[in-house]
Write a structure and sequence with these properties.
mainly alpha
C-alpha cells in the first residue's frame, strides 16, 4: 500500500488573523483568555491558514513578554515606586497593540509588536 502525501493549499484568511489578535482582549471582558484563546487558535489553524504561524508566534511571544513585564513590575512597586508607572505602560501597550496588529493583519501585513522577547522564533 502506498501512502500519498496530500498537501492542502493554505488559505488566506485575514479576518481569522485579525480575530486572533483581538482575542487577546478577552481578558478585559472575562478575566482570562489573554494567552489561552490565541494559543488554541494558533495551534489548530497554523497549518491551514497562510500567515497564521507568523502571527501566532508573535502573539504568544508578546503575551509571554507582557507576563514577564508584569511580574518584574510588582517588586519594582515596593523597591522604587516606579512599578506603578511601568504597570500603567504595560496595560496601555497590551490594550493598544492587539488592536493595531488586528488592523495590520486584516490588511495583509506582518505583525509588529515592540517590547517583545522572542521566546518562539
Amino acid at each position: 500500500m502506498e501512502i500519498v502525501n496530500q498537501k492542502t493549499a493554505l488559505r488566506t484568511d485575514n479576518s481569522l488573523l485579525a480575530i486572533t489578535h483581538l482575542s487577546q482582549l478577552l481578558t478585559y471582558v472575562t478575566g482570562f483568555g489573554r494567552l489561552l484563546i490565541p494559543l488554541f487558535i494558533w495551534l489548530t489553524t497554523r497549518e491551514k491558514v497562510n500567515g497564521m504561524d507568523e502571527h501566532g508566534k508573535s502573539i504568544i511571544n508578546f503575551q509571554l513578554s507582557i507576563w514577564l513585564f508584569i511580574i518584574l513590575s510588582i517588586p519594582a512597586i515596593l523597591l522604587f515606586g516606579l512599578g506603578i508607572l511601568s504597570l500603567i505602560v504595560v496595560a496601555t501597550v497590551s490594550f493598544v497593540l492587539p488592536i493595531v496588529n488586528a488592523v495590520r493583519a486584516s490588511n495583509g501585513e506582518s505583525p509588529s509588536y515592540f517590547m517583545t522577547i522572542r521566546f518562539f522564533s
